[in-house]
Description:
Layout: H1 3-38, H2 44-77, H3 88-101, H4 105-109, H5 112-133, E1 164-167, E2 173-175, H6 176-188, E3 210-212, H7 214-227
Antiparallel strand pairs: 1-2, 1-3
Helix pairs in contact: 1-2, 1-5, 2-3
Amino acid sequence: MSLSSVQSTLSTLKSCQADIGACMDMISDVALGIVEAQGMNNSPSLKKLEEMIMECSRLDREINCFVESVDEKTAQVRNEPPEAMVHLRNSVKDRFSELMAGVSDADLQRHSKVVAFKDSIRKYAMQGQTDAENEEEELDEDIAVTQSQTNFICPLTQVEMVNPVKNKKCSHYYDQAAVLEMIKAKHKNKKNFRCPKVGCDNRDVQQSDLELDLVMKRMIQNHKRQSGKT
Length: 230
């Protein structure tokens, strides 16, 4: 086993993590469809989806623990004699087992996409109740925005968003592809990307500040269907 082959394996695993994240987003989107069609009502389908997203959370944590184990142990043998590589596999395996032994169900529940899954279902269910009852009372700002009050236009592209992401720092929305491209371009020129929303004082938007808002995405999709857009 060579260090270069180890790094190649880690790169592959990190690509797998991106796929896991995309799968978790798909699970959340399917869950919102179930809530929209059937409501919550202790749905067995929602329970199954929750089990699936928890399994994804575990897989993601396993990759993180494995990468940490490999990074830690390869750093130790990097400056040691070549024969030290012989024991690398076992030392990584032992360290991985130690790290995974410390992972609890509570840790898996705290995965950002598991939290988003539960929040999205709760918010969408409450949004549906609000629409059904046609109430005009003020509710919590982050769940009570009706379609008529919501601006679905990306401040960057000036067209309707496809995959809306919310800035956790300033709560503004952008289309995912547009904002990631802008952040990348700014960073390439060693500049910060400031929030394009007029009047916002957030002068350093980072990719880590952004989270896909599946409730907003479904609202946009429903708006398109109702307005006859394709």
